[in-house]
Specification:
The complex is a heterodimer of chains A (90) and B (591). Chain A has 90 residues and is of the alpha+beta class. Chain A is 33% helix and 23% strand. Chain B is elongated and about 90 Å long. The longest helix of chain B is centred in the first third of the chain and has 28 residues. Chains A and B meet through helix 1 and helix 2 of A and helix 2, helix 3, helix 4 and helix 5 of B.
Amino acid sequence: MNQQMSKDVVIVNELGMHARSAAKIAQLAQLATADVWLEMDGEQADATSIIDLLSLGCPQGTTVTVVIKDAQDINILDALVDLIKNGFGE
Amino acid sequence: MDAAAKQKEIILKGISASPGICIGKAYQVDHEGVDIVKRYQIIDKKALENETTRFKKAVKQAKDELHDIIKGTSEDLLQHADILETQVVLLEDKMLYGRTIETIEKEKINAEWALKKVVSKVSSMFQDITDTYLKDRATDIVHVSDRIMRHLMGAEPVNIAEIDKRVILIARDLSPAQTSQINLERIMGFVTVLGGVTSHTSIIARTLGIPAVQGVDDATRLIQNDDIIIVDGSGGHVFIDPSESTLMDYMERQIRFESYRADIARDSQRAARTTDGHRVKVMGNIEQPEQVVAVMDNGGEGVGLFRTEFQYLASAEFPGEDELFENYKDVLDVMQDQPVTIRTLDINGDKAFVRNSGMTEANPALGLRAIRYCLKRPDIFKTQLRAILRAAVFGEVRLLLPMLATYDELMFAKNMIEDAIQSLEDDDKEYNRNIQLGVMIEVPSLAMMADVIAREVDFFSIGTNDLIQYSMAVDRGNREVAYLYNPLHPAILRILKIVSDAAKKEGIELFMCGEMAGDPFSLPVLLGLGLDELSLNPQSIPMLKNLIRSISFADAEKFLQKILEQTTCKAVNELIQKEYGEIISATIYPK
């Protein structure tokens, strides 16, 4: 398959993406078979690493792009978008 | 500084992280050793593999240690446990864990040095971030690596839980894990170099009610073990070796602060009257009998809402009449002559349904719940009514019916109460039928019929949570629409006005037991509406009583007229802010 896919989503929670939310993303992304990236303003971070995610420094209201490198991770993509969209369940 | 002082006192300035004052001996938390890391080269392949294994083992130990702390975290601090969970995930983050192993292998160096190198690189990534919240969060990474480092080097951390004297903690930083181990009988307060108002550590300090100053640059360098220090958590100052006069001054301030805190609690036992003498009763909401103690301690003048669902949901079978009776009697015995408002079963339709028929409802909030369920199941309802009527012999019981939508339902429920009375009569049981009957105003259709309903009951109790949900057609759990959920929406205020007018016209009492009742910002409006009683969670009673005492009833009535002229939430909020913002903040967040 190996087809790259991506979706845009807005960070809605008041505190932006912080350590706890990044941990939730990383745990989900670690289930993917191929690489998962989060992109913001041309910078990208490895979605399986909390530290890398935090280094993006996404405050509330920023749009991030979730990228999967393999189309078979589509469920992970959807789950990540839902997670972010719902303010990380907080 | 006092010129007559013999000692040379040093004043350090920091950020006020948690208010209060403490005076005592300093205790340095930071263990030595972790800061001094040696670098050495490893050439032997076998020894290099050993380095990797040592690192992995240290991470494993750090992880076990964190899990232990999470397990031992007390109820009060449970909300902070997820910060620690995050640290567990961080331990194995590839940019920390993976990179360190790579560095050991590539550069052929010892694990300590490799970890130090990786961490300083990661930390520098966060240097550029301007967001204070994120910067605070980046300290999690430092905590995690310190923990690994301690295990690598075999350095023993100071276990805060094991400190056996009364001290003030001094540390470069306290992790949430360390802070949650604080024993209130030993630790008087703390001072840290890092951290700020938004740090987790300061949040915990405020939860525990101990003074703390953070962001004190030279704290660990200048303060020695056993130094006498003053921590002024309100002003954000730390005094080392204070002069006699400073000491006297702060001892006095400490007494004032503590008596202020005690005053609020003690004052709460007295009735709350507005500045012009209008009395408003403040009651507590409870779910289980044990909670009445908190209502009494906080100066609650009765139970404004006793939710009875717990007994029904806690066990596999519905409770019997005697079991319910004992439960209600327990509460009445404690409250003695003060009123206890027992709300009949407000069970969520599908919960009861699943148990009995295996069916689920598509829309439980609009389905078979509360009084609708009880009227369908007279057996269950009658059992509870009998228990309440029997318990009423032992105190001042009020019967509250939830979720009524129509006049018919009220008539039906009244008939069932008569049935229950008749059956108690037939069984020759002791009971008391002289109890006040009231309805929850939480379905808009009943609010619109308030004029008629008011002739049939002794009181109204407004349940704002559901009233707002049903009036605005909004599920506040749904983030997309949660913004519509606002107790101060002009539409909600108009409904409250209708209900209040109806209650006044028929001369019945008007209570409120929803979250709005405990919201300081809504209080001027509620006073203006003429609420006779407000019922809220017991812990907030002292605060609300205090606030009632600082507002004039006559002013609030006039103010309500202005509020009702507003057309948007924003305008209502701005008006309250303008007229009452200062009074509210001075009462709730005293200097």
